[in-house]
Fold each of these.
Amino acid sequence: MIAYGAGTAAIEVVPTGFALGAEIRGIDARKPVPPETAKTLREAWKQHLVLLFRGQTGLTDQQLITFTQVFGPLQAAPNSDVTAGFGSFADVPPEVAVISNIKVDGRPIGALGAGEADWHTDMSFIEEPPAGSCLYAIEVPASGGNTSFINMHRALDTLDEEMADAVNGVQCVHDLSLTSTGSRRQGVAEVADVRETPGARHPVLRTHPDTKRKALFLGRRRNAWLVGFEVEDSERLLDCLWAHATDEAHVWEHRWREGDIVLWDNRAVMHRRDAFDPATRRLMHRTQVKGGRPR
Ligand code: OGA
Ligand code: MN
């Protein structure tokens, strides 16, 4: 644990002890973050890739937006265009995505329902996916719905050299037709051949723009294709890469409490979510930090 700052402004960075993630203590996200503290938070984010802030109950959307801006300018929530069907109809600012299984008058107020969400990187199917996502827990069920994270720097560092060489300079297609829970986005045809998967193409090996560290970038498994490969070869190699990346040694699992804010770095992290009892309520608001084209 490292304590920063003097007197009243001290914050603590407490690593999870797993492959990534740290809890930050001493922050009240409702209040403006002083510039020195903001710098410390950005440094901690670079180092730990996922930051957890507990006890932030009662935040307004505007306070969540202002807090997220400590980490960069925001990107609009995926409620339109190619991502239509993400599911929100709740009355929230354009920066906020609602992640929830709650229905009002039979209509979901948010995305992802109560099912399992497979390993993915948020919005990796667009040309410039968000650098970060910030998920704020407003209501959580007593059990289920845990969210896990993978350190994709670690996944690459421990990948065998032959496999790393095999994907050096290779691009992968990131499917936009399905959400992480496997439901098809509005107006997008079913993929019959992965060579025709709609979605952005990104390098499998990417370099983090801030730290210059390399990371494995897989995005989402369904309908993925290593561009230019025979489908069979692409499938075999992708299966190997995914089996390695999702090894428990690279994972930290978070069990939510109301008032948690969790911020992750999409450039070096994948995440998944457990299913939970659909008869219980789970309500999260998410903001996105703007990102650039993966390189
Ligand atoms: C997300 C997501 C996981 C969760 O908001 O991008 O994958 O725990 N959510 O709901
Ligand atoms: Mn996600």
Amino acid sequence: MMHHPDQNDATIYTRGEHNISRENINEPALKVLYRLHKAGYQAFLVGGAVRDLILGLHPKDYDVATDATPEQVKDLFRNCRLIGRRFRLAHIHYGREIIEVATFRGHHAQAEDDDEGSTRDGMIVRDNVFGTLAEDAWRRDFSVNALYYNIADFSVVDYTGGMEDLKQHRLRMIGDANVRCQEDPVRMLRAMRFAAKLDFEFESDLVTAIVDQHHRIEAVPPARLFEEVLKLFMSGTSQRAIHLLIQYKLLAQLFAVTQHHLYHHPEFIDFIELACRNTDQRIAEEKPVTPAFLFAFMLWGPMSLRAKEFESNDMSPIQALQEAGRAVLSQQAAQISIPKRFRLPIRDIWTGQARLRNRRGRRPFWLIQQPRFRAAYDFLLLRANSIEPQLKELGEWWTQFQAVSEKEQKQMCQELHRVSHGQKKRKRKKSTQNKQDVNRTNSTDSSNPSDQ
Ligand code: ATP
Ligand code: MG
């Protein structure tokens, strides 16, 4: 990034000129700021917390920037752990709360002829130089994320015009948007995340940069993409996020299998959208959400299509879902690495879709006890309420089954038994007839030799 002389000039908003009040900053963060200040160091609240406080939102976590080195920070706090290899950070623990304290970061080594700091295509692989407050501001991603709340005089320090952008609800990349998206392609996903969360507009250079650089997300390690995708979908505004990803052609960079499926089955978006809305609602109600559910619904379309193919090749429905699930998950792993502990729950949700159909004998009583029953049931309802309305009856049956007494549950099962017995006779006749129909069409359909 070019170093302009005016980059050392900041606009200072004094305590009366902004709306951040110490009352809205959490206790641990204030303690950290004060202790650093009293020890003679500079101490600022920075990043998402300042942005959110000014917008009147609740900060998710608190980041502190200081001129103290990580070792100096460690000396000040007993509850402090140093983490990170690329850039050392201090984590100060207060119960479950962690305040992250980072030493001002300087400019990374100049891209061009430095093999150490960046790869040939301009991606930064290492930046670990301490710097000044001004340098720290300019290397941040978006102007609205580069505001500093100074505990020394309660002012807000703004080097990059972030305050004005906040007012305009505008997301602007600091510096040359194109270069910054090359340096770290994840910034494009961060752009999606903040635009979704804050309902901000992209500044036009940022739009151009995303359009030009979106393919570079390919180069991001799949483990980092996993973390980013979780933040993108589990911040309570996934419904907006999914549409931004589609609009800016980033979905293909994350979920190529899903993107491909949507191309041929556009109605699948209704299911994704409902699942996202459901996730957002759960987060708003502070109910737990799991990454397993996210991957289960994003990949459901392509996975179930493949399972149907397997099924028509003589596999049982559950076996087909297992095989198709394995195949689609390993395809997905090329882009986003899904940790092992989530892969089994994902496949359980999928095979659960077939299990919920089988209500013979005492199975419903057994199924309802299974650890992933609830997730599979929620998933079934999403299908029923979007693209597979034929499942509504089944969904309603399970809803009722969970709501009634054991005695009534038994009655429900008996009733089911009676109905299915009556139906089966009729059905069997019908299905033999269908089979004949299918055979007939196949034998005349020479365009599909695999069927013969
Ligand atoms: P959230 O509310 O989700 O925590 P945040 O803005 O605090 O949002 P973090 O991921 O916690 O986001 O990062 C803290 C700050 O670090 C950001 O506000 C930004 O200033 C800086 N930052 C984080 N990631 C990058 C990046 N890839 N490139 C440049 N700056 C970054
Ligand atoms: Mg943060």
